[in-house]
Amino acid sequence: MPFQITVHQPERILEVVYPPQPSQQDVDEYLSRVREIIEGLGEWSALVDQSQLRVMSATMVAVMAKLNAFAQLKGMKRSARVVSTAASGLQAWRMTKQAMLNIPARTFETRDEALAWLKNPDDE
């Protein structure tokens, strides 16, 4: 199953749902597609649902960290991640740290909580 990408235009939120075990082909296709989308967004926020993801290799964490750094340069103003386990929360934190994000970034247990935070920028 590949990554699911949805752009919520009115709110300028890019939502990505990670598959449980992405293949290298899934990752390559995702990177190509999402970079193209990001280029056309202007200012936007990210909602990344990693709740199905089992484990990311160190290589994949590094690749996604680079994508996050690119995203910040291309207008990402906030980043919300949905995780289901402590391990996936740790991976999300490592990715954020490696990307050296200078934007508000938080981890949530549900999509609804993450979306509410993104829609209300005054909730830090």
TrEMBL record:
Which InterPro entries does this one have? SpoIIAA-like (IPR021866), SpoIIAA-like_sf (IPR038396), STAS_dom_sf (IPR036513)
Q: Which SUPFAM superfamilies match?
A: SpoIIaa-like
Protein name, UniProt field? Conserved uncharacterized protein
UniProt organism field:
Stigmatella aurantiaca (strain DW4/3-1)
| Pfam families named among the record's database cross-references | SpoIIAA-like
